[in-house]
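Complex record, four chains
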Amino acid sequence: MVNFESDYIAGAHPKLMQRLLETNLEPGAGYGDDRWSRSAERKILDACGCPDGSVFFLSGGTQVNVVAISALLRPWEGVVTAETGHIHVHEAGGLEAIGCKLLLLPERDGKLTAAAVRELTETVLADENREHVVWPGVVYVTNPTEWGSLYTRRELEDIAAVCRQYGLRLYLDGARLAYGLASRAADLDLKTIAALCDAFYIGGTKCGALCGEALVFPHGAPTHFANYTKKRLAMLAKGRVFGVQFDALFTDGLYWEIGRHGIEAAERLKEILRRHGLPTFRETPTNQQFVVLENEALARLREQVAVSYWSRADETHTVVRLATSWSTTEADLETLDRALGG
Amino acid sequence: MVNFESDYIAGAHPKLMQRLLETNLEPGAGYGDDRWSRSAERKILDACGCPDGSVFFLSGGTQVNVVAISALLRPWEGVVTAETGHIHVHEAGGLEAIGCKLLLLPERDGKLTAAAVRELTETVLADENREHVVWPGVVYVTNPTEWGSLYTRRELEDIAAVCRQYGLRLYLDGARLAYGLASRAADLDLKTIAALCDAFYIGGTKCGALCGEALVFPHGAPTHFANYTKKRLAMLAKGRVFGVQFDALFTDGLYWEIGRHGIEAAERLKEILRRHGLPTFRETPTNQQFVVLENEALARLREQVAVSYWSRADETHTVVRLATSWSTTEADLETLDRALGG
Amino acid sequence: MVNFESDYIAGAHPKLMQRLLETNLEPGAGYGDDRWSRSAERKILDACGCPDGSVFFLSGGTQVNVVAISALLRPWEGVVTAETGHIHVHEAGGLEAIGCKLLLLPERDGKLTAAAVRELTETVLADENREHVVWPGVVYVTNPTEWGSLYTRRELEDIAAVCRQYGLRLYLDGARLAYGLASRAADLDLKTIAALCDAFYIGGTKCGALCGEALVFPHGAPTHFANYTKKRLAMLAKGRVFGVQFDALFTDGLYWEIGRHGIEAAERLKEILRRHGLPTFRETPTNQQFVVLENEALARLREQVAVSYWSRADETHTVVRLATSWSTTEADLETLDRALGG
Amino acid sequence: MVNFESDYIAGAHPKLMQRLLETNLEPGAGYGDDRWSRSAERKILDACGCPDGSVFFLSGGTQVNVVAISALLRPWEGVVTAETGHIHVHEAGGLEAIGCKLLLLPERDGKLTAAAVRELTETVLADENREHVVWPGVVYVTNPTEWGSLYTRRELEDIAAVCRQYGLRLYLDGARLAYGLASRAADLDLKTIAALCDAFYIGGTKCGALCGEALVFPHGAPTHFANYTKKRLAMLAKGRVFGVQFDALFTDGLYWEIGRHGIEAAERLKEILRRHGLPTFRETPTNQQFVVLENEALARLREQVAVSYWSRADETHTVVRLATSWSTTEADLETLDRALGG
C-alpha cells in the first residue's frame, strides 16, 4: 500500500530527527524561551529580511490561523476569506468558536482578488446601517492555496495595497509554503511576503517537521501575544520541540531543499496521472493534485493507493487529492504507476 | 417630514400603552414570573395550538435569534441560513460572537429551499473529513423574509421534513410575523408554524410593542433555558413589560388586527409607488417594499420622506426600503404621494 | 399581600409613563438615534460635569455590566471584583460567557479596598510566570454595593489612584445609584464619580424606569461601541424607550427625588424592623435591608409579606432582603408593621 | 549550571526518542487515526481497567484541561476547583476564554474536600435565585496537586460520591500522574482513578514525552469529541507523535519506571535541602519541592542552580520550586549539593 493522502503521512525529515536526538538531554527553558527557539527566530527573521520582527512557534495550522487572526481583529471586525479558505471549510469553526465572523468572497482559482476585497470594503463603508454589520478587518490568503494554486507577486501587492488603503491587516497562511517557494511557477519569495503581510506563518508540519508552524510578525507582534497564545491553549511547555526543528529547517537551506523535493515528486506525479488518462481536476503548480474519479474506480484504486477524499463531485463521482512531500520516494511513484496501470 | 423608514418608528399600539398604564403600580414578580407574562404565555400557546410548549420573552430580534439558536446547537454544529438571512447580514456577528458558525446557502426570493438544505447535509455526511467540518444543526428561516417574501406551507413542510430526516432543528424568525399572517398571500398560520418548528418567535417590536419578542418552544424548551437567557444578558428585571404587552397583543385578536392594518397600508403604498413609476425592486406581499433609486433622486426624496438605506445597487444607485406598520396613517400615505408627485 | 422583594416590583414612575404616552406616536429614528436619547444624553453629561463624554442606553444591569466591562478589557486582562460583586454572584457567568475572567478579592462591608487592588496588581507584575496569568485590567465597584453599603469619596479616590498608577480602568455599577446619591450617608456625587471612573452606569430599572440603564463614558467611549453593543445583543430597535425615560429622569431633579423617596421609606423600614426585634443583618444606609430569619418564621412572614431570598445562613436560618423604592407607600410600611406585630 | 526548574527541561525519555526514530518514515494516517495511537489507546485502557473507554491525545495540560472540561459542562454550569487549581492560577484564563466560569473553593493542602463540594452544591440548589447563578457541573481535582500533595483513595471516593449524588462530573488532572503513582505515599492507582472519574488525563509532557497528554474517558467520550478537539485547535495533524510516545510509555511499565526515577531523585533532593537547612515549605511526597528563600539568597543560588519562581512570600522572600523528573541525574543532585554548601 502506497500513501499519497497528504504531506503529513511521515514523521520528520531525518535531519530534524537527528537534531532532536542530539539536543535531547540538554536542559532548556520552558514555553519557548529556550536557546533553539531564539536561534530559529533569528534565522527566520534573517531569511525574511525583517530583523525587528517577532516569531512565535505553534503546533499546527488551524491553531496558528485562529490564534493569530483573532489577535489581529478588533471587536467590530471579521476576516475576509475566499469561500474555499481553510479557515472556512476545514477548521471546524475554530475562528467562530472564539467569536470571529468570516466574510466570504468568491474564489478565483482558489484565490481572493484585490477587486473583490475592495468592493466588499467600500460596500460596508457606504452602508448606512454599518453599526449592524461586521466590518472587514483581516484579509486571509493561503499560499499555496487550498487548491494548490499560487499568488503572483502582483496579485499579492494589489491585495496589500487595498489593505493599506483601508486599514485592513493582511495575513498569509503558509501551511505548504516550502512547496510554494520551490514551485517552478513561484513568483513570491519570503522577503516579499514579509514586506507585504502583517503576519504569516511558515509551515512546518507539512514541510518536514513532526509538528510546528513559525508565525512571523514582520513588523512586530500584538502586545502580550505570548500571554494570548497561552490563553488560547497554544503554548507548548517544551517549546524546544519547535525551536530545534525550525533551527534545522532554516540551516543550510533545508526548508528550500524540502520544497524542491516535494515539487519534483509532484511533477513526476502529474506526468504519471496524465499518462494514465487521469488529468488533474485543477491545474496546480505545487504539491497537491486533484483528480475526479468515478466512485467504483476510486474504491478499486484505494485497495492499493491511499488518497484523500476532497469533495463530492456528484452522485457518482468524487474529487480526491494526491499529495507529494519531502518524504515521497521514487519507489512510491513507481508503485502508483503500476497500480494505475493494472 | 413623513417617515417610512421602518416598522419601529413609533412607540407602542395605544391598547398596549393603556394596559401598561393600568397595571403600572401593581406589584409583580421579577424576571418573567409575573402574572401578565404567565397569562400571555397561555394565550400564545393557545393560539399556537401547543398547550405543552413554553414561551420566553426577550427584548429584540437579534437577541432572541442568538440566544435561542445557540441554545439549540450542539458543539459540533452550525446554523444553516440563506445568505440574505438577518443573522448573517444585520446582527453584527452576534452568533459568531458566542461561538456559532453560519453555513450559508443561496437565497431564492429571500428563502431557503429544502433541496439546498438536503444537499448541504448529505455533503457533510458523505465527507470523509467531517471531523474538520461544522455540521448543520439548526435551520434558520425568516417569515416574512428580509426581502418581504413568504414561505408557502408546502415549502416550510418540505424543509421541516428534511430537518426531521437528518435530526436538524427548525427555527423561524418571526420579527414581522403579524404582517406575514395578515398578508393576502399568507399560506401559513400560527398552528402550522408551531407544528413544523422546534422554536420560533412572534415579533413584538415591529408589530406594535415598545419592545419584546415572544420566543415559543412548541414542544418544550431546552433545559434551564431561563438561566441561559440570564447568562446571555437577555433577562429583563421587569419582565412584566413584555408580559403586559403580549397579553394585550393576544387579546381579542389585536395581533392580527395590527397585521391587517400594516398590510392594507402596504397595498396602498405599492399602488402609490406604481403610480409614480417607482416599481418595487422585488415583488413583496408584506409590509416592506424595496425600490432602486438614482442617488440624487434619493437625496431629493429624503428631504421630505424618511426611507431606509438597504444596499448599494451600483455606483450611482441605491436600494431603499419603505415600510408600513400598525402606525402608518392615511395622512402619511397622502404626504408620500404628494412628495413623489412634486 | 405587601411586597418588599425588590426595587423593581412596579412599573415606571408616573412621570415617565406620562412622557412615554405623550411621545408615543411621534416618529423617531431607531437604535438610539432619536431626539429623546440625544436630549437625555446631554442632560446626563451635564449632570455629570463631563460634556465631552458619551452615553449609551442599555436594557438592564447585567447587560450593561458585561457589555461595558468586556469592551474595556484587553485580551490578556481580567476584572477585579469583590467576591460579593454582582458580576460574580448573580449574573449567571455572563462575563465568563464571553471570555472574561474575574479576579476575586475579599470584600470588606461589601467593598473593595485600594490596598487589596494594589497588592493583587503588584503580585502579578512580580510574577515571573505572568504569561500564564490573567492580568488585572478593569476594577469593578458597585455603589451602593450588593450589601447596601456606600463608598466614601476617599475610598473611591484611593482606588482610582491605584488604577491610574497601574493603567487599570475603573468601572462603577450604579444599579441603585439614585438611592446611593440620596442616602443620608452619601459622600459621593455624580460629578466626582464621573471624574474618577472610566465608565459607570446610572441605574434606571431599579430607580423608576420600566427598563434601561445609562452607561456613561465620561472621557469618551471605546471605538465603535455602538457596533459592539449590537454584537452583544444589547441594542434596542426602539431606543426611544430609554431616551424618553431618562430624559424625564434628568428633568427637574426627578432622579434625586426618586432616590430620596426610597431612602425615606428605608429609614421607616429600619425603624419598624428594629421595633419588632429584627435588627438588620448588615447596617445599610441605602434602600436594601438584610435580615436573618429562622426558616419557619420566614415561611410565616411570607404569608403576608413578599421578601427576597438572599442566602443560606445555616441549616435553619436564611438571610432575606427587604427593599424600598420610589414606589413604596406609607400603606405598604403600615401593612408590614402589622404583619410583624402579629 | 544545573537545572531544577521543572520536570519539562529535557526532551523525551530515550526509549521514546528511539521509537520515534524507528517509526519515522513509516506512513501513517493523520489526526490520530494512526496505528500507534490506536495501540497506545488499547494499552492505556487496559492499564486503566476500562476496555470500553476512549482515549484522545492532546498537546499539553492547559489544552487538555480546557477542551475536556468544557466538553463536560452544560450551558448553565461551571467548574468547581480549589483556589490553587492550575485551571485557575496558571492557564491564563483559558476556560473563561471559551465561556466557562470557575467556582472557587478553599484548598486544604492543595486539595478540595468532599464536604466543601457538597456545601457549595446544596447552597446553589437551595438558592431561590438560582436562575441567576452558575451551577456546579464539573469538579476538577489535580493529582499530584499543584502543591505536590496527593489525594487518598478515601478522599477521592468521597468526592466521587458527592458527584454521583448530585449529577456532577469528576475530572482529574494528571499532569504529573507518573510521580503520583510512584510516590511512597501513593494510595491511588490507575484503575481506581478510572473507576471514580468521568474523565482524567495521564500526563506525558512532564513524565517523559516531548509533548502530549492522554485524555481518558473511562465510560465513553462526549459525542463527536474529535470534532470538538478540532474546533478547539487541539487536533494535531501528525497525531502519531503522541501515539508512538504513549505506546512506548505504556510498554513494559515504562510510565511507572519514569515515575519511580523522579520520586527517588525527589527523596534525595529533600534530604539535601534538609541537610542544608532549607526545609521544604510544604511537605510533599512527590517530585516538586517548595522552599522559601530570602530574595538575595535566591539571587545567589540562581547563579548556579535554575529554580522556578512560585509566588511572592512577602516583600523580602520568595517561594521557589525545585522539581525532579525522569531526567534528573545523580550528577545534578551532587552539583546542587555543592552549590548549597558553598
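Note: The mean pLDDT of chain A is 96.
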